[in-house]
Amino acid sequence: MKTPLKELITDGAYDSMLTRLQANNNPNLHLLVYDKNFTVNDFLVIPKHFFLPEIIVKRPELNPTARRAGWVGCNINISAIGDAGKVFYVKNKSIIRPEFVVQNYN
User: Fold this and answer.
1) Whole-model pTM above 0.70?
2) pLDDT at position 104, please?
3) Contact by Cβ (8 Å): 71, 13
4) What's the CA gap between 13 and 2, in Å, rounded?
C-alpha cells in the first residue's frame, strides 16, 4: 500500500476469502505500507489466529452491466483487530527490535 495503514483494506473475492480463512491451514496476513519513494512506513503481520472471517466485510455485488456482473468482493477490517493481533516489524519508519517482535508474536 502506498497510503497510510487504513481501517478497511480492499481485497478479492468474498467467498474465496471465507473458504481460505476457514481452512485448517489458513494464512497469516502480512501488510506493507510504503510511500511514493518506496520507503517502508509500516510492515506488520496479523497472525492467522487473529485473521478470522469476522473481520471480512462483504462488498455489494457488481452491477448487471459490469464486465464481471454479480461478482462479490470483500474488504478486510483491520480496525476490528486489537493491538495484540498486530505484530509490527516496522512501525512509523522505525525498525522494531527482533526480540520484541518475537515476544509480541508469541
Assistant:
1) yes
2) 82
3) yes
4) 22
